[in-house]
Amino acid sequence: MDLLKKYLPVLIAALLGGIIGALIMRGGGTVPSTGSGPSAGFSFKGGPSAGSGQTDCKTTEEKMTIAGDSLAGIVQSGAQVKVVKSYYACKDANRGDIVVYGYAGGTQPLAKIVKAIPGDKFELKKSGNGWNILVNGAPAKNSKGTAYLLGEQQYRLLSLYVKDYGGVIPGNAYLIMGDDPAGSLDSSRFGLVDKSDFLGKVGK
After folding, report:
1. Which of 18, 127, 131, 167 is the most buried (most CB within 10 A)?
2. Which residues, 6+ apart, have CB-to-CB distance to 53 below 8 Å?
3. What pLDDT, on the 0 to 100 scale, is given for residue 83?
4. Cα(1)–Cα(40) distance, rounded to whole angstroms?
5. Residue 2 scores a pLDDT above 60
6. Tens of pLDDT along 150-178?
7. 66 near 75, Cβ under 8 Å?
């Protein structure tokens, strides 16, 4: 609780000051976000069926439209994509997957890239005027091969996870990023996320 109180201003600033990332829109309207979203408690729930005793592995496909530029190197704003909904109900997410994340801080879910998965080594390394994200000892990079370089607030937020989990991504937690090397509205702004908040996978 003391840790939460200490860093609460950082978390609030990150959420309020974040750059809007790639949003998913359906049929010209908005898709309400679902799930509990990120929290400073660092409690990862263990998948969508945690506590239910049942797992529904049924998936559906839906065309959705990308709104926003955080995935501009991969998917342009305005492009339609196929989303396999509930894809992760019975499957693990892999590095490189583009996931639809139910962001609790907004009215639309986000489309982001999985950069680190449970069990990956995770650290932050000073580089020039910022910090690189290291995953298994190598800098995490965007689609153009440019390493992510985070600012002070982003570093402070993610360093809490590094400290609390001993530099290892915990079970059911994921690092998801946009394609902007400076970060966008992604894990650099709201931290690691729980797999239970993945609404689907963006297909090809």
Report:
1. 131
2. none
3. 95
4. 10
5. no
6. 999 999 999 999 999 999 999 999 999 99
7. yes
